[in-house]
Write a sequence for this structure.
């Protein structure tokens, strides 16, 4: 259940693949497994003594009951009685209800991956709109044209066409499409760090799909964040007057959790839905507004203002000492 | 007074230091008699979220051959504004900016809680980080594709202003010019000819540029090493278009792989352009070097690559020459402050034995996998670029460690990923690549002779000064100053005994053992280790002469023999069943990890999951292998989940799917969850093995547990036997301890 990229061919005893979000999440350690059992009752040596006694007993043909007693004693110090012996191997495991109180471990807390799944499934009905995503990216590129070298712009344009082609020909998986949708929202609203972080998560989690064109998007993010605010205005204006402009603080950070409400999706007449079953663009659908998007706090990538230990927290230096 | 346990933990948390002895013997002879040397494990850049760096530079002792840093242990005369160096006793005036200090207004470096402090050096240029990819193209199509994607991905993880370069090699070596415009150009070198650094620089046209001074540096930047943000698109395409080495490989031959020359060009390029600047050469190989200098095996497939057997029979033709070649290169690289990583992915050996010094002397990583198309490689590679709580890379460059000691002690050696750069008054080492877990072992000597011991009541002081380039390109200096009391080994032996840190000592002795194993025969190393253990038991055990049953060890030493038992069986000292490359790989990681990880490598951790209670650590013993348990074993390199017989049958019967057996499902999930925690933080990514009773991969567990029950004593144990017998002739811990006691109490020994 940790596998992110199921299509990755796994090697011999290959560890599972973790998503970028899970790798960068810096939660406190829940359960550090670094303890060692203390050998025997008191020390190694007592344990050894026991062994020696057994050894002596066994070699001096002690009465068998004694043998049993001693080896019983030494092999299972303090251990609870074993389950019925393997003569009946398929006796079922203890049932949940009566022994539930003494279940071996508390049910494992829901990890970030697991808690994401319900969100994923609830999203499956919304289909990110290729038109909107591409138009945002193209408007960003247009904004850059005044300041950025022609060659770079045409290079970026080439890659944006590649993205569009892959999308329209159905070569992009749903998570990629969805994250690109979020990325374009972040770009539109000037959340450069968030856009950059989504680009990185796509490169890490879906490199095979995105490596050819993502570098163009990456450059676009880098160039637009350098632009003067007035050059950005056409980008931030919604393309469709009906569209609700995304407020900067409303854009969810985690791409997987974004639920692009249907009212955000301007459905162009020539739009070819990739998966007809998944498109429910009806205006009477209950729109899930961006402010209702669940944002798992664990998954919020630390923005610059969340960085701890700024220079103001520096301990007393010689300069401060002077006064 | 806190217990030693607490003291030790506090010292590790605050200063990243663990000493074998926390009271020091007052003469050299007494120190020798303690068997385990006065030594420490030191983690120079231990992550300290609670320690923000200070924005000024350290105050140094004015004596030219001392230059120790002002620290909390110095005596300060606040009225006269003078401080006394606690190493050379020089009295130093404070610099003018400290004019305002007083007892109530002290700078941070005088406060006891800042025994470790980090300074940001404000002057000097802050050169960008440099990453030079050196890529083998003699790979299978699928492997090359996966590697190309990983490299493209890494461009997104690098800081935008980092410089990046690309060298590819097969039969020829190509240095790629990275320009934003025009057609892709590259310089081609023959893979058979050894070139001097000067020749390489001439051929790349670097010398001409260097003559024109400052301008020159700019020229280099635009040709072979470019800022990522400027060339990312072209480099992505360049990588995407990389083809397998076009030279045909005849039947029965290995591809010709010029790893030696490729590295020589990489090292020469950096040497000529960015000496003494943090840089990382990242070498990706899918097979052994087969031609030119540094060749490890010929191209005839019928001649297999050297094995331990060949080496023992002195039958490894290229071993000495290749090792010498790579050692020379590693030293050159270390002098310039550049580190070299090796990412070797192949099913057969790739020559790590010969090439290991490249990483071991420069602090680079070695990663070993079966294929570039595995999550093991992909995720390990991603983690090279992992970031800390501040969003900075967990890597630092160009570290220089200086160790200053008070006059009663001196450093006699160190083991870790570093290279020695000469001793005058203070020992100094270079650690070109360094990260928060890089841990060095330092061994000390007590100077005072037996007839003139260190007087009682004093303290020995050691200061570690680590200068390095932070990944945000700042130059920083971290200073750790620690002190320990001297003790008279005659009258205070019990105090010294209780100050023993058995975990640190086990790791420190193990590092010595691994160091010896590099040059000595395996059995000799084991004998040396055994002798040390017996001497330690003779010194500190309580017993009646010639009565093994009377033997006892105090709490502070009780686990030590067990660590030695597992160390003897570990792949760091046993080469059986490991190729020379694997042994090099295991040892590489052992001599750089911190104490916790090193101990896991020596004695793997075993946890048991059952219906009888919460998960608990259990003995690494065959008696712990029970039918109704799930075991999780962590050996650092492998993570094994083992389902006992009954559990495996229940799982096969599908009880976990039934609602009324929800608790069984939870039981199955618990070890997976804990394994996930380990997998998320470990570097390199371990192998992950999910097995069960009778499974072929259960051998990973069976080979690690103490064989307390074997086929030899199986019948004697009869029906009441619990646990799993191991088919082995290895001695068990019990037998080992038995012998140890006999030898320790023997009057003839």
């Amino acid at each position: 259940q940790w596998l992110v990229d199921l299509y990755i061919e796994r090697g011999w005893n290959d560890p599972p693949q973790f998503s970028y979000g899970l790798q960068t999440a810096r939660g406190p350690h829940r359960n550090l497994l670094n303890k060692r059992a203390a050998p025997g009752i008191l020390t190694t040596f007592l344990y050894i003594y026991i062994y020696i006694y057994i050894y002596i007993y066994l070699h001096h043909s002690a009465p068998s009951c004694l043998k049993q007693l001693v080896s019983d004693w030494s092999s299972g110090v303090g251990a609870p009685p074993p389950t019925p012996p393997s003569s009946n191997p398929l006796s079922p495991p203890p049932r949940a209800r009566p022994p539930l109180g003494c279940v071996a471990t508390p049910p494992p807390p829901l990890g970030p991956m697991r808690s994401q799944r319900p969100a994923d499934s609830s999203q499956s009905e919304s289909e990110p709109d290729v038109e909107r995503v591409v138009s945002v990216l193209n408007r960003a590129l247009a904004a850059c044209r005044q300041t950025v070298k022609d060659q770079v712009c045409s290079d970026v344009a080439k890659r944006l066409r590649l993205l569009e082609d892959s999308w329209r020909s159905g070569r992009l998986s749903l998570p990629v499409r969805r994250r690109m949708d979020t990325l374009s929202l972040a770009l539109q609203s000037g959340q450069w760090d968030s856009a950059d972080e989504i680009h990185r998560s796509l490169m890490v989690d879906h490199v095979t799909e995105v490596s050819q064109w993502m570098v163009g998007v990456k450059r676009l993010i880098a160039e637009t964040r350098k632009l003067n605010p007035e050059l950005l205005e056409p980008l931030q204006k919604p393309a469709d007057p009906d569209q609700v402009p995304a407020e900067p603080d409303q854009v969810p950070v985690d791409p997987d959790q974004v639920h692009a409400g249907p009212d955000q999706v301007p459905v162009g007449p020539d739009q070819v839905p990739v998966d007809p079953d998944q498109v429910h663009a009806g205006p009477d659908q209950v729109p899930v507004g961006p402010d209702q998007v669940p944002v798992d706090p664990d998954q919020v990538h630390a923005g610059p203002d969340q960085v701890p230990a700024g220079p103001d927290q520096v301990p007393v230096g010689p300069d401060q000492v002077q006064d | 007074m806190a217990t030693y346990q607490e003291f030790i933990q506090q010292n590790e948390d605050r200063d990243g230091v663990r000493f074998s002895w926390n009271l020091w013997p007052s003469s050299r002879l007494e120190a020798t008699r303690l068997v385990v040397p006065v030594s420490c494990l030191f983690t120079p850049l231990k992550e300290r979220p609670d320690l923000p760096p200070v924005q000024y530079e350290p105050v140094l002792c004015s004596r030219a051959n001392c230059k120790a840093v002002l620290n909390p242990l110095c005596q300060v005369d606040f009225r006269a504004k003078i401080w006394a160096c606690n190493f050379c006793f020089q009295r130093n005036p404070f610099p003018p900016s400290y004019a305002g200090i007083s007892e109530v207004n002290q700078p941070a470096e005088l406060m006891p809680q800042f025994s470790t402090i980090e300074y940001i050096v404000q002057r000097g240029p802050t050169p960008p980080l440099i990453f030079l990819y050196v890529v083998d193209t003699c790979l299978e199509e699928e492997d090359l594709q996966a590697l190309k994607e990983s490299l493209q991905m890494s461009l997104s993880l690098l800081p935008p202003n980092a410089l990046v370069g690309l060298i590819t090699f097969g039969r020829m070596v190509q240095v790629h010019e990275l320009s934003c415009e025009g057609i892709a150009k590259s310089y081609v070198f023959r893979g058979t000819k050894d070139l001097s650094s000067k020749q390489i620089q001439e051929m790349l046209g670097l010398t001409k540029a260097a003559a024109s001074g400052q301008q020159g540096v700019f020229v280099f930047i635009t040709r072979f090493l470019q800022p990522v943000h400027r060339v990312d698109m072209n480099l992505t395409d360049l990588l995407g278009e990389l083809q397998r080495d076009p030279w045909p490989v005849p039947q029965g031959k290995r591809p010709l792989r010029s790893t030696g020359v490729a590295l020589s060009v990489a090292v020469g390029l950096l040497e000529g352009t960015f000496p003494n600047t943090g840089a990382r050469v990242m070498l990706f190989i899918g097979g052994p070097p087969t031609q030119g200098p540094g060749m490890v095996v010929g191209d005839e497939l019928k001649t297999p690559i050297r094995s331990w057997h060949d080496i023992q029979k002195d039958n490894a033709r290229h071993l000495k020459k290749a090792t010498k070649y790579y050692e020379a290169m590693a030293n050159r690289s270390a002098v310039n402050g550049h580190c070299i990583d090796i990412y070797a992915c192949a099913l057969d050996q790739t020559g790590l034995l010969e090439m290991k010094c490249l990483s071991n002397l420069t602090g680079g990583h070695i990663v070993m996998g079966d294929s570039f198309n595995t999550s093991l490689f992909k995720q390990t590679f991603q983690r090279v670029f992992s970031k800390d709580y501040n969003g900075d890379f967990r890597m630092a460059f160009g570290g220089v460690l200086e160790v200053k000691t008070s006059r009663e002690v001196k450093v006699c050696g160190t083991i870790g990923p570093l290279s020695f750069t000469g001793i005058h008054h203070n020992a100094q080492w270079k650690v070109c690549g360094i990260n928060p877990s890089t841990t060095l072992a330092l061994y000390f000597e007590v100077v005072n002779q037996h007839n003139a011991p260190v007087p009682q009541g004093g303290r020995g002081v050691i200061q570690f000064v680590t200068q390095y380039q932070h990944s945000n390109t700042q130059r920083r200096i971290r200073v750790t100053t620690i002190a320990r009391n001297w003790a008279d080994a005659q009258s205070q032996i019990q105090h010294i005994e209780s100050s023993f840190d058995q975990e640190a000592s086990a790791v420190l002795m193990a590092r010595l053992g691994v160091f010896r194993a590099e040059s000595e025969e395996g059995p000799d190393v084991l004998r040396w280790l055994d002798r040390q253990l017996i001497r330690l038991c003779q010194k500190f055990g309580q017993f009646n002469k010639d009565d093994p049953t009377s033997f006892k060890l105090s709490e502070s030493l009780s686990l030590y023999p067990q660590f030695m038992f597992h160390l003897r069986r570990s792949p760091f000292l046993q080469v059986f069943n490991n190729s020379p490359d694997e042994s090099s790989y295991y040892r590489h990681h052992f001599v750089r990890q911190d104490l916790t990880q090193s101990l896991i490598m020596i004695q793997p951790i075993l946890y048991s999951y059952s219906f009888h209670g919460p998960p608990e650590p259990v003995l690494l013993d065959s008696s712990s292998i029970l039918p109704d348990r799930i075991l999780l074993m962590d050996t650092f390199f492998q993570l094994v989940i083992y389902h006992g017989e009954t559990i495996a049958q229940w799982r096969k019967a599908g009880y976990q799917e039934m609602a009324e057996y929800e608790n069984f499902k939870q039981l199955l999930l618990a070890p997976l969850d804990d394994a996930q925690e380990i997998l998320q933080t470990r570097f390199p990514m371990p192998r992950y093995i999910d097995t069960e009773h009778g499974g072929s991969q259960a051998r990973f567990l069976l080979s690690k547990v103490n064989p307390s029950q074997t086929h030899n004593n199986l019948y004697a144990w009869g029906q009441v036997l619990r646990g799993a017998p191991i088919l082995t002739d290895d001695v068990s811990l019990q037998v080992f301890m038995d012998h140890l006691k006999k030898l320790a109490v023997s009057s003839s020994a």
